[in-house]
Write a structure and sequence with these properties.
Layout: H1 20-26, H2 32-40, E1 49-53, H3 59-64, E2 70-75, H4 78-88, E3 94-97, E4 110-116, H5 124-134, E5 135-148, H6 154-166, E6 190-205, H7 206-214, H8 225-242, E7 246-260
Parallel strand pairs: 1-2, 1-4, 2-3, 4-5
Antiparallel strand pairs: 5-7, 6-7
Helix pairs in contact: 1-4, 1-7, 6-8, 7-8
Length: about 260
């Protein structure tokens, strides 16, 4: 499904379905330390019903499944959900192709609602009432994010410079360590119970880093096939010149836990 929003990439259309195969292969890169932070907060664990909104290829429910929560997951892209189901195997995760704005699960269905790498895509004035209706009293919204740090990491910085030559309006570029921004409309109903931002080193090979970059909005989700082929040649050449066979890329992760106000 092709999407467009003037606040994202200056309105350039993108479609995550076009890069789902690469996303499934190369974007499941969150380390155990990332998941430990979630479990350490007592969230997404046994006895809880969790809804993962904007689930993509199901990275969050698949990797947290072993902690015993009952998972439901939704994404606007049918191709992403197809990959999520394939990767989930025998896991009992209920997947739905559905935009966040039209989720209609019964009242007080969930203990936790999660949104990882997707919160800024939502139309919040429409999503917020649905979240309030679907959450049980005194429960949580958990917002999660991880990104490489191009100003602090040489290889990531060089890859981003190249990506911007192909997608100069990419608004996802230039990330720095910062808290997750929560729109003002949530403040009437929620307060921040916890937030944390921390650095992580994520291991890559030239091939997996190339795949991770291809599976981003600026490249695989928005460029034409001809542009992607051109970028691939240029990026592989760049990595052969600046990157060893194996290396770490500096990232940061951010967590924001919102609780309903008393």
């Amino acid at each position: 499904m092709k999407l467009s929003d003037k606040s994202i990439d200056n309105g350039k259309p993108f479609d995550w379905g076009r890069t789902s195969a690469d996303y499934a292969k190369y974007r499941d890169i969150y380390p155990q330390a990332f998941y430990d932070k979630i479990i350490g907060r007592g969230l997404c664990v046994c006895g809880q019903a969790v809804l993962d909104v904007g689930t993509g290829t199901g990275v969050l429910p698949r990797n947290l499944y072993r902690y015993g929560a009952r998972w439901t997951a939704a994404d606007i892209s049918a191709e992403q959900i197809k990959q999520a189901k394939r990767l989930s195997g025998d896991m009992k995760i209920d997947y739905y192709v559905c935009a966040a704005e039209v989720l209609r699960f019964p009242v007080q269905s969930f203990d936790v609602i999660t949104a990882c790498q997707c919160f800024w895509y939502f139309k919040h004035e429409e999503v917020l009432p649905a979240f309030l209706r679907m959450l049980k009293p005194d429960r949580r919204i958990l917002l999660l994010y991880m990104a490489y740090l191009p100003l602090e990491d040489r290889i990531a910085g060089a890859s981003e410079v190249l990506a911007l030559r192909y997608s100069p309006n990419w608004s996802g570029a230039g990330e720095t360590l910062r808290p997750i921004i929560v729109p003002d409309c949530y403040n009437l109903h929620f307060e921040c119970a916890y937030h944390e931002e921390f650095r992580l080193k994520i291991p890559f090979t030239r091939e997996t880093w190339h795949g991770r970059m291809k599976a981003c909005r600026a490249i695989g989700a928005s460029l034409t096939d001809e542009e992607i082929a051109s970028w691939e040649c240029a990026h592989r050449k760049l990595l052969s010149e600046i990157a060893p066979d194996e290396f770490d890329v500096l990232h940061y992760a951010a967590i924001a836990e919102l609780k309903i106000k008393a």
